[in-house]
Amino acid sequence: MTIKPNVLILQATGTNRDPDAAAAIELAGGIPTVLHINALHADPARLHDYQMLVLPGGFSYGDALGAGRLLAADMRWLFQEELARFVEAGKPVIGICNGFQALVKSGWLPGLPPSFPPTGGDERGGGRATLTRNASNRFECRWVWLEPNPDSPCVFTRGLTERIYCPVAHGEGRFVPRDEAVLADLRANGQIVVTYTTADGNGPVDYPDNPNGSTADIAGICNPQGTIFGLMPHPEDHIFPEQHPRYARGEHGNLGLSLFTQGLRYAAEV
């Protein structure tokens, strides 16, 4: 990249993965700024000073009323108009874990099919899918393998062919589309960006390889344009080789850093 994109990492009370996200952005070649949501509410136009937006993981507002629900409400009512302008400008957005939950519950993901352009509010796609309690009915904290979809328009996975190895840490990460028609749309549009897979990539994918029971092993999705990406696993927690759980035994590779690198490359072009 010839320039270093400025990246806003939006913090809310209870968010705890913002330092990890900032480290990933900096290592990938961006300039991270962690900003509390109250500061953005005071001046929503500040959003346009940045070329990329990150909604990091954690437990925003203590997951009161459900994981990501109150952050989603803030996104709808505190700076919805500015966020719409940000997205319409083609700037990339990534939501990780709690951030993914907020994107889904605010209606930004999965979004409407290309034949139905966004119109604002919940009509944007709210209710077409949800993230609910894990099928195991308990908090899951383990490392998982992710398979990128080469046919996805997602700007965070452009050109990626190598699988990603990173941890999950959530209690409500089971992705469930509203019905088979929504699932068919996601497949047809290439919106299923990453899926859970096995260590050898050959399947079948059952628990614990799919840690939460997500429909069709879906770990992350994007909007039809590919600029908004949400996933439950934490790629920001595998950006150094030494973070691999079996690094001392000689295993390494499959870093999550590649997602941030690709996202920043796109952001530099917008």
Structure in words:
This protein has about 270 residues and is of the alpha/beta class. It has a single domain, classed as Class I glutamine amidotransferase (GATase) domain (Rossmann fold, 3-Layer(aba) Sandwich). It has seven helices and eleven strands. The strands form two sheets. Strands 2-1-3-4-11-10-9-6-7 form a nine-stranded mixed β-sheet, with helices on both faces. A two-stranded antiparallel sheet has the order 5-8. A hairpin with a 5-residue loop joins β10 and β11. α1 crosses α7 and α3 crosses α5. The longest helix is centred in the C-terminal third of the chain and has 13 residues. The two termini are about 10 Å apart.
